[in-house]
Design a protein that fits this description.
By secondary structure, the chain is of the alpha+beta class. The protein has one domain. The protein contains one helix and four strands, in the order ββββα.
């Protein structure tokens, strides 16, 4: 199973990060999430980025493939909204 976190940036607008899990932290400027697990993939209106992937099992690879597919669909949706 993969999970998603959404954040907004000035340059890319809405950015969706997909990972196996997230760790939530409190910082000086508010709370934030860090992707943990074997991979971190994100999607924005600009494209898909695989930040890191270190898969050690078939299950990890299967989850990464699911995450990339989800990021690809999100990228298309976000890019289409940006054209409106």
């Amino acid at each position: 199973m993969t999970v998603e976190r959404i954040r907004h940036t000035v340059m890319s607008g809405k950015v969706v990060t997909i990972s196996a899990a997230f760790a939530d932290h409190d910082g000086a400027f508010g709370s934030y999430s860090i992707a943990i697990g074997p991979f971190e993939v994100s999607a924005s209106r600009n494209g898909v980025v695989i930040h890191r992937a270190h898969c050690k099992s078939d299950g990890d690879i299967d989850l990464l493939i699911v995450a990339i597919g989800r990021a690809r669909r999100l990228w298309r949706e976000l890019a289409a909204k940006n054209q409106e």
